[in-house]
Amino acid sequence: MENLQDLKLRLIDEVENNKEELLDLCARLIQIPSVNPPGDTTEITELIENYLSEVNIAYEKYESADKMFNLVAKIGNGDGKELVYCGHTDVVPVGDLSKWDFDPFSGEIKDGWMLGRGASDMKTGLAGIIFAVKMLKKLNIELPGHLTLAIVPDEETGGEYGVPWLLERGLVTGDGCLIAEPSSYLNPTIGQKGSYWFELETRGEPGHGSLSPLAGKNAIVDAIRAIEEIRSLWDVNIQIPEEVQPLIDVSKKYMREVETDRLKYQEVLEKITVNIGTIEGGTKSNVIPDYCKVQVDCRLPFGITQEEVTAILTEKLDALNIDYSMKRFGFKSVANYTSAEDPVCQAIVDNISLVTGQEAYGVMQWASSDARHFRQYNIPVLQYGPAYLPSIHGYNEKVQVDAIIRCAKVYIAAAIDFLYKK
């Protein structure tokens, strides 16, 4: 057998020579509006099934909820380690169509950019891992162990019917995992902040608006007071654990030297961020509101638990002497990471450098992702995928075609390193 370096270089050339097939797959995925909610992935899953079947890749299909489908496919001889390549098929809603400069489901290429909802998050990354697995199968590369595709729905709402559903049932296991989520060019994300979403409800007493503030009890006013206390979570002093400080430091370096427009955001790595996302309350302007609901998204750094945040919030809100309740929903996790020295991190980082000829290193992500679920099951994981970061979840989402091809080259080469190296 040829040595691993020669094999990797040959496979990288194969990706380059077949890039039109890769880009066509990207376009076809984007053209299917797999928006979540509602999260119907029927059509996009069928497309992927047909694509895998072209080279007889076996797969299992699981309907975890109505019209939400997971696909698990494997190649390799099973004698060795297992590497999981994971991606989600759902995308966020497109919003106001009048604010798009192009059809969000066009999947067209213009001036070197792939256009459409999911171009960055994350249909081109999804296409890359599927394409890499198909190429390995088509070329009859004898892989030791298993390379597994885990293609999931229900990521964009933080739902439970994708990655966690598969892991809970033992339908996906592995010694390492790569999620093809959007990332920086040279910097995969090897750690994520925690998530703490909750809904605050304040309750008041109705009355005629002309008598306020002397009559009734205004639930919206009480919610405003509560919001000020909630926002003060940013000021909580948190001691970052010594073992993760190097990851924080290298991530700050990344924000200073690579994504320089993010320099001003360095503090978020060590702070509880607070976003007051929605407010709903009252019935009419001349009626004293008897209820108000506020939904809040907090992201937690290393060094603080969800229970500690709950205790801090409860103490602050109890002191206001208001009638309130608090309910958790959506994303729930603590900050988590995979060591840069883990074989799956080294395989991806080393092959980013091989493909680009530049230094690569892992960094911290200030948001949350499906990576947390893999780490809960002791599966080392990182994220690397094509992206134009400013367009994610926004209007005019796009990604550079070169980034799509580069990432596919990294995926195919990294699989060789991870599975062949002891």
TrEMBL record:
<dbReference type="Pfam" id="PF01546">
    <property type="entry name" value="Peptidase_M20"/>
</dbReference>
<keyword id="KW-0378">Hydrolase</keyword>
<keyword id="KW-0479">Metal-binding</keyword>
<feature type="domain" description="Peptidase M20 dimerisation">
    <location>
        <begin position="190"/>
        <end position="323"/>
    </location>
</feature>
<dbReference type="InterPro" id="IPR050072">
    <property type="entry name" value="Peptidase_M20A"/>
</dbReference>
<dbReference type="InterPro" id="IPR036264">
    <property type="entry name" value="Bact_exopeptidase_dim_dom"/>
</dbReference>
<keyword id="KW-0170">Cobalt</keyword>
<feature type="coiled-coil region">
    <location>
        <begin position="1"/>
        <end position="32"/>
    </location>
</feature>
<dbReference type="InterPro" id="IPR011650">
    <property type="entry name" value="Peptidase_M20_dimer"/>
</dbReference>
<dbReference type="GO" id="GO:0016787">
    <property type="term" value="F:hydrolase activity"/>
</dbReference>
<dbReference type="GO" id="GO:0046872">
    <property type="term" value="F:metal ion binding"/>
</dbReference>
<dbReference type="InterPro" id="IPR010182">
    <property type="entry name" value="ArgE/DapE"/>
</dbReference>
<keyword id="KW-0862">Zinc</keyword>
<comment type="similarity">
    <text>Belongs to the peptidase M20A family.</text>
</comment>
<keyword id="KW-0175">Coiled coil</keyword>
<protein>
    <submittedName>
        <fullName>ArgE/DapE family deacylase</fullName>
    </submittedName>
</protein>
<dbReference type="Pfam" id="PF07687">
    <property type="entry name" value="M20_dimer"/>
</dbReference>
<dbReference type="InterPro" id="IPR002933">
    <property type="entry name" value="Peptidase_M20"/>
</dbReference>
